[in-house]
Design brief:
By secondary structure, the protein is of the alpha/beta class. The protein contains 11 helices and 9 strands.
Amino acid sequence: MKKNSAIRLNDVQNVYSGPEGRLWELLMGEQIHIGGFRSSMDLADSARIGRGQRGVDLCCASGAGMRFLVRFRGVEQMTGVDATHAMVELGRRRCVEEGVADRITFVEGDVCDTGLPSGSVDFVWGEDAWCYVENKSKLVAEAVRLVRRGGTIAFTDWMEGAIGLSESEANRYMSFMKFPSVFTAAEYEDLLRANGCSIVQCRDTGRFPDHVRLYLDMIEKQLSYDALKIIGFDQNAAAGLIGEMRFLESLAADGKIVQGLIVAQRP
């Protein structure tokens, strides 16, 4: 595990309540995760999530993942938990606008202590967001508590790759992304097994390098004005952002950071 103790929850909340969050959505869409729709479909297929099921999305942001699940997978009911007020309110509005508010509920709170009933859902879901949680041991334990026996925990996340990050690389990476800690896939597997789960799938999706290049192309070739508008037309800030994204691109190309996909089952 790589850890940056300077990053706290309020840093993450500030990102997704302000211009940085809007900038990520400009580049990545409402599904603020690598691969968007295709990534969600891949995860849902891998976890066999389908019609009539009920789930919880931990770190749901504005709920795009939940809207995907009820619309394209026939999931009956979703509950999303997120600690950022602005994201929860935005998600509620979007669910009303899209006509799915009757099937999606938001809880503004701690994903490590949701207060939701134990064993109440068929699956727990997460997409590229558990990297923002400081105490991943508590997060995984809460996910296991929420899912019924025989149920599934399915998530993607930004993970440390097999090559590994140096301490200086990790600090720069986590400071830019506002990650308090970053796990390897093996560390997530160990936590899940320690909580009694079996691992169904664990793999690098291979999407990271191409998608970081895509985001750079978008910000440099097509969406430059839109991005500048979000950050107050500060060209120095824009240059700094592009520099950090090129740093991410180099880490991804070297296999030091990956989008990992894990599906686990509670016995």
